[in-house]
Amino acid sequence: xxxxxxxxxxxxxxxxxxxxxLAARVAVPxxxxxxxxATKFAFALNILMDDLALRAxxxxxxxxxxxxxxxxxxxxxxxxxxxxAATYDFEHLLDVVARRLGEGLGDLCGIRIATEDGEWLESxxxxxxxxxxxxxxxxxxxxxxxxxFGEGISGRVAATGDPIITSxxxxxxxxxxxxPKYRPFIERLGITTSIVVPLRYRGKVLGVAxxxxxxxxxxxxxxxxxxxxxxxxxxxxxxxxxxxxxxxRTSHAAAVRANEALHDSEVAxxxxxxxxPLPLFVFDVETLAPLAVNEAALLLYxxxxxxxxxxxxxxxxxxxxxxxxxxxAASGEEAAAGTSRYRRRDGSQFVAEYTxxxxxxxxxxxxxxxxKDITAQLMGEEALQRTEEQLRQxxxxxAVGRLAGGVxxxxxxxxxxxxxxxxxxxxxMNPSEPMREEVLEIAKAGRRAAALTRQLLMFxxxxxxxxxxxxxxEVLTNMDKMLQRILGADVDLVSRLTQPLGSxxxxxxxxxxxxxxxxxxxxxxxxxxxxxxMETSNIVLDEAYAHDHxxxxxxxxxxxxxTDTGTGMDKAxxxxxxxxxxxxxxxxxxxxxxxxxxxxxVQQSGGSVWVYSEPGHGTTFKIYLPxxxxxxxxxxxxxxxxxxxxxxxxxxxxxxxxxRTVARGILVRSGYHVIEARNAGEALLHAEKxxxxxxxxxxxxxxxHMSGPELAxxxxxxxxxxxxxxxxGYTDDSIxxxxxxxxxxxxxxxxxxxxxxxxxxxxxxxxxxxxxx
Amino acid sequence: MxxxxxxxxxxxxxxxxxxxxxxxxxxxxxxxxxxxxxVATLTGWIGANGDPFAVLADAxxxxxxxxxxxxxxxxxxxxxxxxxxxxxxxLGPVIHVVVELFRVGTGIQLKTxxxxxxxxxxxxxxxxxx
Lengths: 773, 130
Hints:
The structure holds 2 protein chains of 2 kinds.
Chain A: H1 7-18, H2 37-85, H3 90-105, E1 108-114, E2 120-129, H4 132-141, E3 147-148, H5 152-160, E4 164-167, H6 171-177, H7 183-189, E5 193-201, E6 204-213, H8 222-275, E7 280-284, E8 290-293, H9 295-301, H10 305-310, H11 313-316, H12 320-331, E9 335-343, E10 349-361, E11 364-373, H13 375-428, H14 436-459, E12 468-470, H15 472-487, E13 491-497, E14 503-506, H16 508-525, E15 530-541, H17 543-548, E16 555-564, H18 571-574, H19 594-604, E17 608-613, E18 619-628, E19 649-653, H20 657-669, E20 673-677, H21 680-689, E21 696-700, H22 708-718, E22 723-728, H23 733-737, E23 746-749, H24 754-772
Parallel strand pairs in A: 13-15, 19-20, 19-21, 21-22, 22-23
Antiparallel strand pairs in A: 1-2, 1-6, 2-3, 4-5, 5-6, 7-8, 7-11, 9-10, 10-11, 12-14, 14-18, 15-16, 16-18, 17-18
Chain B: E1 2-5, E2 9-14, E3 19-24, E4 28-30, H1 32-46, E5 53-58, E6 62-65, H2 67-79, E7 84-89, H3 93-106, E8 109-113, H4 116-125
Parallel strand pairs in B: 3-5, 4-6, 5-7, 7-8
Antiparallel strand pairs in B: 1-2, 2-3
Helix pairs in contact in B: 1-2
């Protein structure tokens, strides 16, 4: 026990306090009575010093708290800044959160993240410890398994959103309270305290942060928890942002990929659209304004791209906007198809099949149109129809021709008998003979029948021709007067003759017949007069023309056009005018063989004839004859035989008995010796047995088993000086094959008459006699 | 009446009189937690209406106070110095100095008495039905 303090003692303590020693006290008795002033002051001073020391301690504590708060705020700010910076990388952000919490509160921090369904926590690689060795240990010890919300400490924190602080006196005690799977890790690191805080954003737990402290020191307290929560709240915002950003980035990437895919798809479709050989365009249904067009369509319509895009689709249609819209309205919503006539930029038109289909396009109610130009196809079809019509016409004419030819052949044999006997009778009758007139009528009728038969043969192209190289201008010029007489005074004859004109190979008499027949037809078509134009020109018929006109061979031709200004014809009439016996003339005024003859002669001459006519606008016949090389044959005067009689030996071969009989009679009466045969076989036999000379073989052309020309060829081997004369009612391939038409074999046309036969026989015999000389 | 007791302190609150009778365990030195106990108890009783109340403390057995107790007690009574009346009896010399420093320092209406009736009489003069 000390004695009572003095004022010096009091002063010393005050002096010590003034220099910062707040621990100084005045020594006072343990049980002071405070009965002296110095002691009382000393005691009061000690109380004051106690209070000052407390205040100082409190101030120090407050300062430390402020510093702690400042540090926390700084850490929080830095953490928030770093979190923000790491927002673009979710994994990196979790590493930052773990590091910030570990650094801020030590020692170890790991982050677990909630699954999207909010039912599980998943471990992450975001674990921090400032000591690399312990960090490695912590990574090894981290249990990479999912933890269900509500289970274990972390699960409870995740489920409730409330943090949990756990502190134990030792690691062993801490481990004992923990789940078994964490115990080895806890004991190895020496963990004694932990905080588990939720990473919560707007009430939703995004994950949890597990902090454990293994270094010796105080356990986690509320201040630590406050700090951790603050950090965790910032971290949660960043995690949410990072998730959103990652999702957005994924979404964006997906959108970019989708856009790229869409772009690729659009490019592909654009390429298909642009490269399509089919003309395509897209147009707005409301305005009919074009929205897209491909190259093929531009080519078809003749517009540039800009021009096309500035027009209206209705401008393309010949029938205009209203019709186009009406078609669209009638077409419904999906697809429509049809045929329409369109107009190109240059005004030309074409026919096309269109197909349109509804197509949403760049926000428009649109349709895509596929256009197929079928003009050529239609023209082709028309040409085909024309050709088919021509073929049908040709086949019809061929059939009629064959019929006529066959009839004519038989007729010619019959007429040969009638005319020959008629002439023979007349030759034997006196002019006063009462029967003579009747016989004359028979002969006259026979000759008319022969003329008709000849015309039928001409039509059926089975007439024997004697073609020559001619200048048609000369033929027309020579016929001028005769034509004017035929046409009469009311019809003007106009000739437009091209000079020089190419040559043609035709039978002169037959081409004159053609011209005559056309002139007569023209005259009859102009009952009150008019104009007939004869026109010649050189023309080259090309492949296309030949393709469209049956029977025409391409190459240089001479055209003879005969045009009248008459009544013209309708199509039905034109379709039949070349048929034999078809006539528009009243009964008795026409045979119906005029144009048929024209047709047959021209066809047989290798040419073609076409007619152009409209009712009220006259008619034009155009005859095309192939041009030939070579000089025009000069007309040679035929020398008539001095006599029609002879004494030579003639081998007569004819399968028609009546013809054979009459021919034999004619020849015998004219002085000839006649060896008669019914066919080629008999002829060969007779020729073999006959010891004398046979001067002439007179043979029918068409016979069973062997034709006349073939027979002549066989006989010529043994009788090379024998002349040959063929006779026939019509020509056919056998005649052509054996050169009759080329003039190598003499020929007499049936029906024969005594005059025609004896004259021809004599002519042939004398010709051969001359050649032998 | 309501009575609460801590290891060092017993407080009996008479709500109708608004008087808290305080006694201390013998040999007690009041420390920080005793300050918390006192403040928390009185705060719950006196309410927030600003009505006058009194603390009649028998300091017999009280040997001292530490700085933290004093700081807490001082802070509480400074806040209620217009409505609080403190009457103390049986003070030893050390507690007496502490009380005097407290009274002068806070300006609170505090008076020490030799016995309980004198203390209550003074409180009644202040409008407290002690």
